[in-house]
Each structure stands twice: as C-alpha cells, then as structure tokens.
Amino acid sequence: MDASFTPEQDEIRRTLRELLHSRCGPRELRAAVEAPTGHDPALWSALAEQLGLPGLALPEAYGGVGCSATELALACEETGRALAPTPLLATAVLAAPLIAALGTEAQRGALLPRLASGTLTATLAVPGTALAAALALTGDNGGQWAGGGRAGGVQARRVADGWRLYGQVDQVLDGHSAGLLVVAAHAGGFARSRTLLFLVAGDAAGVVRVRQTALDATRPQARVQLRDVEAELLGEEGADVLAALAEAGDAAAAVLACEAVGAADRALERTVEYVRQREQFGRAIGSFQAVKHRLADVYVGVQAARSAAYYAAWATGGRVGGLALAQALEALRTASAEGIQLHGGIGFTWEHEAHLYFKRAAGDELLFGPVHRLRARAADAAGLFEATDAREVAV
C-alpha cells in the first residue's frame, strides 16, 4: 500500500485551501452563518464551478468528476480547517450517494447532474434525533428509528397517484435551504412496516421548514414538517434501504473524520501561534514546559486521528469509518478545549474564533456520536466482546 497522495489529490487540497483562505476568513464566516441560507451562496458557487466539489465523488456519466470518496474526504479536511459553512456535507456526503445507490435510471439522470453542478442542494431527513442510528454508526439500523410503524416519525401512505408523507423531522442539516429532501419514512403500518426513502421538493406544498438555533452555527439545522406532502419513492420498493444507509454511513463517517481532523489541526495551529506571542513573567508562555507537554499531547492525538481518518477514507466500505470518526472527534474535542484554556479569557468570548471549534466538536458528537457509542458499535461489529466472552467460558 502506497500511503502517499497523488499529485491530483495534493492539487485538490492546495487549491481548496487557497480558495478558503481568501474567501472564508473570520469575518466572512460570521456573515455566512448569519445569512438566511446559513452559508455564503457565492462561496458555494465558487466551490462548485471552480473545483467541482459537489460532484467530486460522482460518476462522470452524471456530470461528476469521477473521483473516489478519498478525494472528497481530503476536500472536507480543508473545509473542516476553515469551518466553512456550506451544503457540501448534506448534499455530496449524505444525499447524493443514496440517490446514486438506490435511484432509478431516470432519477439519477434527472438529479445527479444538478447535484454535481451545485445548482441543486439536497439533504437527508431522518425522524427524531436518529441520524447516527439511521446510518448504522451507533448501532444496528433496524428501522425503529423511523417510527416503527407507530405514531411519530414520518409515515408514508400509498395513494392513487403515488405516495403521501405525514410527520415531522428535527435536526435536518441545511433542511431550511435544501432544494431536495431525501426523507426516511415508514410504510405499511405496524404489522408490515418497512423503511423507505422518498424524494420531496423543498418547496413542495405542505412542507414547512424552520431553521433552528444550533449549538454549532456553522452546521445549520432545521425542523421540517410534512403535512400530507406529495413524494416520490426513491428507487424500487423492494430495494434494501437499510443496507444502503449503512454503506452511506460508513463513507460519511470517513469523510466526517477527515473534516474533524482538519478542524483539530487548525485549532492546534492557532493555539501554537498564540502561545508563541503571549508573554507572561517576561517570556512567551509557549516556552513553559507544562504548556509544551499539553500541546505535545494534542499533537499526538491529532496525528493519530489523521492516520485513522486517511485509512478509513482509503478503505471505504470496510466498516472502519465509525471508529476513525470516534478518534477524530475525540482529537477535535481535546484540541479545541486546550485551545480555549491556553488562550485564557479571550478564548471564551464570542469575538474570538476558538469557541467555534469547540462547538463544532460538541455539535458533531451530538449529531453523529457520542464517541463511546461509535466505539461500542465498532467493537460489536468486530465481535470483540463475543470473542472475550468465549475465552472466559473456555477457561
């Protein structure tokens, strides 16, 4: 295995870092999160038109670049460094792979080129607070998270001209601005309930979307109400939706791990820059041994998380994304917390950017974790505890 990056991969990272450095500074970041869309449309257009970021991992036949999930993960490492608020995660990481995997040829032909060009944004809407469960990151996604056929969640009923959805979905990433919603819903009632995915236009009649106040303002979320909304079934009715969600979840975890590593690396860089400048007792605080030890520990954690994230991105489909994500989120939490502490009083204020990295760490754990459940799921999938129990019985 050659662990080095190709010239094309290095070029993607370099070009994207330069673009984000010039277009997504602290002032631009704050303006973007306060905008009605929750992101800067001009920046999104630049990422789509100049770099083809939304279509990076989509086939060329549908207008994509034809790269793998590895290139998308490396790109998200750079957006993570800048905490860039864009619909990239919701569109290219969550929604597009499901449409590519399950959609009919007509659906793929109609939607994927628009998603690849960035003219259409999309998101995955999972009932309740069960996004991590639906993606099989924190447990077996048996389908109960979608309502279980009982009241609550989102219910789908067949009508003469198609399907109708009724219910409410909370914590939908970019749900207030996405042009297309991929909605997970239960059909068939309690006796024969099954989870299906549906395509719903963001501006369809009966769709009520309200942007929510989120802990991490750089990841805008919305509550979406579906009031007898007309929907189109994604793919065929007999498709294995849960398996497709689990496969998309593993790839999403690898991408998220790289994104978290980028954020952790930048938080560490900012802290190192600060301790070199701030003086106490006539010398830079970075020269004190205690500070050096703390930052050395952070550095080791970030580098270990980077190795795990890169491997998960390379081995997409190997069900290691959740474990890499756990390590990356832990590294980001540690790096951002140490950054706030070592910045002193200024690190706690709204005027400084240090708190944004801590909120990203906490927000991602709420959405895709927590860390201990990600690790428990990985251990269960590997049969780690079963093997231990078998040895104990043998003894």
From TrEMBL:
This is Acyl-CoA/acyl-ACP dehydrogenase. GO terms for molecular function: acyl-CoA dehydrogenase activity; flavin adenine dinucleotide binding. Belongs to the acyl-CoA dehydrogenase family. InterPro entries: Acyl-CoA_Oxase/DH_mid-dom_sf, AcylCo_DH-like_C, AcylCo_DH/oxidase_C, AcylCoA_DH/ox_N, AcylCoA_DH/ox_N_sf, AcylCoA_DH/oxidase_NM_dom_sf. Its cofactor is FAD. It holds the Pfam family Acyl-CoA_dh_1. It comes from Streptomyces ferrugineus. Signal peptide: none annotated.
